[in-house]
Amino acid sequence: MPILLARGLTKTFGDFEAVKGIDVEVAKGEAFGFLGPNGAGKSSTMKMVAATSPRTGGELSMFGLDPDVDGAAIRARLGSCPQQDNLDEELTVEENLHVYGRFFGLPRAVIRERTEELLDFAQLTERRRDKVEPLSGGMKRRLTIARALVNDPDVLLLDEPTTGLDPQARHVLWDRLFRLKRRGVTLILTTHYMDEAEQLCDRLVVMDHGRIVAEGSPRALIQEHSTREVLELRLPVDGHDESDGGHTELAHLVEGVGERVEALPDRLLIYADHGDAALETVTDRGLQPVSALVRRSTLEDVFLHLTGRTLVD
């Protein structure tokens, strides 16, 4: 039986339908991601999965249990890492773990043992007696995840786990999460970072306006919704700046090159299986690019193609 199973899952707030009948299935030990722009329905879905917000319609089960009936039993087997750290900054690092362990009614001896394990896991042993407030953002994030593991959960829910962290802290956190996955912990996460999704997720869904618009592994999604390579092309704009339209007025010059052309104010994106061949075609037409870059397609190309480049508030 899947760890998470949803069929036709919906969530409404008054007249607004945040989640519009989605189907999701997550297997034990899997790292599964929800991607989508703001307002796509990711957070509403995660709250229903966490048994903290009731569903409006459809079917939903965690561990084979109904969140509307067995919410407490489900939450006891979950670890939750919210988007914003909600640590008690007046307590020390180890005191945060002790207090959280007591919330679950764990014996003091078990809490002490798990605190030692989690401090080592989060690389915070040397900071155990430090107050939380002066810690760096990366340290606080590692402590938040360690705290979410104090009850030895079967599933760890992560809402934007590395938002606001510098690249070094993000990579350290990725390593910690990868180790959890190897231990058999199921990870369910939301993220805005496409490279994070590619690093961590076995499978993911892309959500937009409350619906799932694509599902699969990162590699499969790239193969299905993009080309092998992308040619990023900058052409002379003859005095037109970006506010005048820039490259959006030059797209016709490369029409038919590659499978798809996307015009941005500052460059043209030509999607083709062979970027160098596409560049040769461009130069054969007599065009002289200011710059040209051939790169591999990424999950970000898929995400923007499916959800658009317009900012959603």
Automatic annotation (TrEMBL):
It holds the Pfam family ABC_tran. Belongs to the ABC transporter superfamily. It is a peripheral membrane protein. Keywords: Antibiotic resistance, ATP-binding, Cell membrane, Membrane, Nucleotide-binding, Translocase, Transport. The lineage of its organism: Bacteria, Bacillati, Actinomycetota, Actinomycetes, Micrococcales. InterPro entries: AAA+_ATPase, ABC_transporter-like_ATP-bd, ABC_transporter-like_CS, ABC_transporter_ATP-binding, P-loop_NTPase. Residues 4-234 form the ABC transporter domain. One of its GO terms (cellular component) is plasma membrane. PROSITE patterns: ABC_TRANSPORTER_1, ABC_TRANSPORTER_2. This is Lipooligosaccharide transport system ATP-binding protein. It is found in: Cell membrane. It comes from the Bacteria. GO terms for molecular function: ATP binding; ATP hydrolysis activity. GO terms for biological process: response to antibiotic. SMART domains: AAA.
